[in-house]
User: What shape does this take?
Amino acid sequence: MEYKISILKDATRLPEIVELFKTGLGDTTPQFWEWRLFADNGQQDKPFAIIAEDENNRIVAMSSILTAIYGKENKYKCFQFCDWVVHPDYRGKGLIGSIYRFTCDYFQNKGYDFIIEFPNDMSYPIFKKYKFVEENNISSWQTSKNFFKLIFKEKTLKYKNIKFKFSNNCPFNNQSFSSENRIYRDSKFLIWKFDENPETKYHWLTLWETDKCIGYFVFTIHNGRIQTAVNVYDWEFLHSDYKILKFALKKLKEFGNYVSVWGKYPDNMIDIFLKVGLKKVVNKTRFVHFSASHKPFPKDLILTRIDTDY
Assistant: This one.
């Protein structure tokens, strides 16, 4: 049987994606996929989905695709496969391989450098099959844990002439954050990623020096059975005084029992983590990559939770 592999361009077919996901990964909504696949996120290439259709034009498999630009002046162009799903009646027919090859050809023709992935137990064998390189350098860094959770009520405070503001939405516009080894982030991308996400509630802590934002933390509050974790999804800190960073973590910690900062970091940043009191915790997250170009993989690439998913 021949299967048609293509880019999903028709948003009216999103209910088909919802039904497909019910067969394998659980309930979603058309509103979620409208945001995930068709909203403008400010990146050069917007997210989209690669679909497989049978002879009746029925969507029987898909993977959403996320692109990312790392480094100043588009130093590294990467993409990820997300949300693999194949209808149970069509598994074992090579559809994942067809989608994989179609997507790789597409992005190689657009000059992309690498595929980066954070596979779970189900998708890990797929990437091993395609000879992805695995690295064991994703870690969690945590503050010490309080037995009791504190409740922080102030929305604005000052420390060393730096103003700290808590909010439920991105409080700045027309500002970008770019470094040699991180994903390019501007206001439009951050608002799309965190404020417009219809499924997850994010919170912001921003640091201000006069009218300039010199740092931010985007975080969620995860209420466990015994303890509450404050999970940092993305952050930036543009100041040489790391006591300010330590103060910010202290204030974040007041929303729960501890703060968790996840990611892949170079040695100089790990030294900073140790200075501000963070401790390394065993993390089982897998990180794999594959070269789609002549470039060697950048070992000093910084990855946070913002890089792992939508």
